[in-house]
Design goal:
mainly beta; 7-stranded antiparallel sheet
Length: about 140
């Protein structure tokens, strides 16, 4: 779904999350002093993605970093969404930093608006899993 037609309808969405501290938890979206950085897209925002910092449930702050924006290419093929989120590798210290050849960790979340998923109601990958950054 890419439109909200009534109060009981919700849009599809996707997010990818990275820890900003070694002991950050994807389950709780971080904790006070142990933040996470998520890139968040909603189907009704025309390829706009937000840069999110959170330190636990209910603390998500969305922003648009105009110096290092999250680029989004989202297309629906009539049955499925294909979403690509990207950003230049150089990053500010309060955002996820990617170094070629260095591992990171990642988690994913998907909102199916047709299944009434929104906010904390979503499908997600569980805790962070290792990911390699290729050179």
């Amino acid at each position: 779904h890419d439109r909200i037609a009534d109060l009981d309808q919700f849009v599809d969405g996707a997010a990818v999350m990275f820890p900003l501290a070694e002991n950050a938890s994807a389950f709780t979206m971080g904790a006070p002093g142990i933040p996470v950085n998520a890139w968040y897209w909603k189907a009704n925002l025309d390829n706009v993605a937000f840069d999110v910092i959170a330190e636990g449930y209910g603390t998500s702050g969305r922003s648009r970093d105009h110096q290092r924006p999250i680029h989004c290419d989202a297309r629906h093929d009539g049955k499925h969404w294909h979403v690509v989120l990207s950003r230049v590798q150089a990053g500010a210290s309060e955002r996820a930093i990617f170094k070629p050849g260095s591992p990171t960790r990642v988690a994913f979340a998907i909102w199916d608006g047709g299944n009434r998923e929104r906010a904390g109601r979503k499908s997600f990958s569980g805790d962070f899993v290792p990911a390699d950054i290729e050179a």
